[in-house]
Amino acid sequence: MTLDYKKLVTDAYQRIFGDLDVAAVDDYMSHDFIQHNPTIADGPSGVKELIQKLISQGVKKQKIEFKHIVAEDDTVILHSR
Q1: Does position 1 have pLDDT exceeding 60, yes or no?
Q2: Which of 8, 9, 20, 73 has minimal CB crowding within 10 Å?
Q3: Residue 58, C-beta contacts closer than 8 angstroms, at least 6 positions apart
Q4: Measured between alpha carbons, how far is 1 from 6 in angstroms, rounded to an integer?
Q5: What is the pLDDT of residues 64-80, one digit of tens each?
Q6: CB neighbours of residue 17 within 10 Å
Q7: What pLDDT does 2 receive?
Q8: List of residues 6+ apart from 65 with CB closer than 8 A
């Protein structure tokens, strides 16, 4: 069985950033996740803090619209709005 990386990544992105599901972070991100945004800490804890901050600021759940999805082997690139 081949893993569908596009589905895996879009599901993760929707659950974490669209549904603001803090618990989903542990389902999809490894403990050694490297965050490339200098204002967010590395690892799942940094993403969880971001989600909690967004919720506290009144950000609501939303359906992520994926404009482009490019996948090659285990690398996936998303363009969303």
Answers
A1: no
A2: 73
A3: none
A4: 15
A5: 999 999 999 889 999 99
A6: 19
A7: 61
A8: 80, 81
Q: Which amino acid is at 37?
A: N
Domain ranges of the chain: 5-80
H-helix or E-strand containing 24? helix 22-28
Tokens 């404009």 map to which residue? 67
pLDDT, tens digit, for every residue of 22-80?
999 999 999 999 999 999 999 999 999 999 999 999 999 999 999 999 999 889 999 99
Q: SS3 string of the chain?
A: CCCCHHHHHHHHHHHHHHCCCHHHHHHHCCCCCCCCCCCCCCHHHHHHHHHHHHHHCCCCCCCCCEEEEEEECCEEEEEEC
* E strands, the chain, in order: 66-72, 75-80
pTM of the model: 0.89
Task: Tokens for 24, please give them.
Answer: 């989903």
